[in-house]
Amino acid sequence: MRSHILGKIELDQQRLKLDLDYLETVPVVQEEYDEFSNGYWKNIPLWNASGQADDRLYRDIEGGAVATEHTARTPYLSEIVTSVFNTAHLQMARTRNLKNAVVIPHRDFVELDRNADLYFRTFMVLEESPRAYHSNEDTVVRFRPGEIWFLDAASEHSAVNLSELSRQSLCVDFAFDGPFDEKEIFADPTVYSPGGEPEFVPRKPFTSETRDRILSLANVLERDNFRDVLFMLSKVHFLYEVHPAQTYTWLVDIAKATGDEKMVTKAEQIRAFAIDARALTDRFSLTSW
Question: Can you give the residue ranges of the Aspartyl/asparaginy/proline hydroxylase domain (predicted)?
Fold first, then answer.
């Protein structure tokens, strides 16, 4: 996987708790890409394109990102953004939480104008949540608090929290107009210390028997549970040694076995939407037929 640890900081737990307590009070609303997740998924913009506190859409911007009103209530996290990172190329900074939920395998930046290699996403988990995992292509890892990761969001990736324990994180995005060195994102050069060993998540072998059990879902797949089956399939690669993109291969095959052409079309369309291409304002319904 291209995702890797860039460095690590020691988190001030006392100051962090005050920020996390505030974030917990911010209401959950419909997300810009709500079709990508189920369960509890909350993104709160600290910096974005407009400075509006309810603007959660990641997009290309001219000039620098603008602080939202949430920064006044999250002084510690805001300090991390401005002191650890070089904000000259900052596009967005947001907190993200996932509880008892999965994000379907997808690729980011496909709806934007730059070459994908000119976008650079960092991700840092802020609190322990032992059953919260991230996948990047054929690897599954558990991020540890304080680790600053480059997250290769342009490749197939996913996230899951198999528990109700909060998994707050800080996601900071940068974009460049030409070639760059990843250390350029740091204002504090002492933080940049690549080469840390990730915590890989052990998984069970994926066998032909496992595949047959998955495909047997054709016996119960209906339009009314199509969405539920997709999210269930999205969890399989966190448990078994298989690529996350197989989620959609299984979904298409299961839909074909039902003989319902509308479900086949829906399965093929969500694969294209999540993995291949979409426009910035495109949305996808898993429940309308």
Answer: 29-174
